[in-house]
Amino acid sequence: MRKRIAERMTEARATIAQGSCARQVDLSSIERHGVTWTAFFVKAFAQALEADRIGIAVEVPGGLVVPVIPDARDASAHDIGVRIADLADRARRNALTAVDVGGAAATVTNVGATGTLLAFPLVAPGEPAILAPGAIVDGHCWLALCYDRAHYDEYAADRLLALAVERLTALR
Predict the structure, then answer these.
(1) What whole-number distance in Å separates Cα of residue 133 and Cα of residue 143?
(2) Are 157 and 129 in contact (CB under 8 A)?
(3) Cβ atoms of residues 157 and 49 within 8 Å
(4) Which domains does the chain have, with CATH numbers?
């Protein structure tokens, strides 16, 4: 699996003009009520993109898979969190179906879950962007948006990231 991932990322680096931007976010106003941070990031990103299907990077033995959260824009953060837990569990048991993967409008990869403060992942072929939240420290985190320049220039990407931050901090 890692070999295939490496091939796809080599293809991405060679064929996609990648760009990136980052913003620090104050998350202290968000009341989580047991909902994972990833669910909030997925919801805010879906709203900013005005997209329903957001992929989530899930670490599995041998690599990563990206199942898709359907209806992420309209679902509650709680429901997204439940879906993420289900998809991650099935991904780790190698029990995802074809319906569970593919067709994402963009992806969220929560590199911060393992303590990374800031990362700039490569955009996968076929997707316009990937959001990478960093570790949350004292109620703040860095959000990196990596994007395909065929879809966004620097200004449009920064506006998209600013809108994602706005939507994120407005969630309750």
Answers:
(1) 4
(2) yes
(3) no
(4) 2-170 (3.30.559.10)
Closest CA to 51 of 84, 86, 75: 75
* pLDDT tens profile 51-89: 999 999 999 998 899 999 999 999 999 999 999 999 999
DSSP-derived secondary structure letter, 121 = P
pTM higher than the cut 0.85? yes
Q: Where are the beta strands (DSSP E) in 27-148?
A: 54-56, 58-60, 63-65, 68-69, 106-108, 129-133, 140-148
CA distance 119 to 92: 23
Three-state DSSP class for residue 59: strand
